[in-house]
Amino acid sequence: MAPAFRSRLSISVVAVFVLFLSSCAPTQELNLEQEVSVEESPTPEPQAPAELTLSLPSSCADLLPKTVVNELGSTGVELLRGPGSPSAEPVYLDGQSPEELVGGLSCLYGLPGEEELVVSIVLSVAPVDPAGRPQIISDLLAQNLNIGQTLDAKGLTYWIWGDDSVRSALHNELYADAWYSALVQPGGRPAYDQAVALVDAMRKSTTQ
What we know:
The structure is a single chain. The chain is α+β, with helices and mostly antiparallel strands. It has a single domain, classed as Protein Transport Mog1p, Chain A (3-Layer(aba) Sandwich). A seven-stranded antiparallel β-sheet has the order 1-2-3-7-6-5-4, with helices on both faces.
């Protein structure tokens, strides 16, 4: 074989060998993923629910939400006595209600024209101060009422179902700032459930 041919053959073999080695070497990716540092926003601390404070209404017209007033009206029950009512007579003809005695107000609802008030609802709300709170509790305990706790665990309840002949259904809720009560005649479990719902409606309507 001629020397020139062997030289060209050697160069070709070397070139092929170099290409083979380069194909076997790991390739470097052109698009490298860049590390991105993401700053995590701090998790907000859970906030305690805002404390509700009593805003005592001056009129029975502001004691309940309009939707609840309309519900009572659909059964024929209307506001009969109390501030803002059509009557100048007091809720109790023989004296003020316990809530009125401590600076609150009471409102009498019933069927217009019903002389004996067989169907009646007395709703009351009063402010509570630390000095007068023990006496309110003492008076409620003297009525031999059942004792419980409000659904929000921030108040006490004093209650009784009553019956449909003698005793009215009564539900009291006593908070640090306010005292609510609903007295429904005739009593019984359905009447008591209505009293609980009415107290809840009063609480929502008179706090901020």
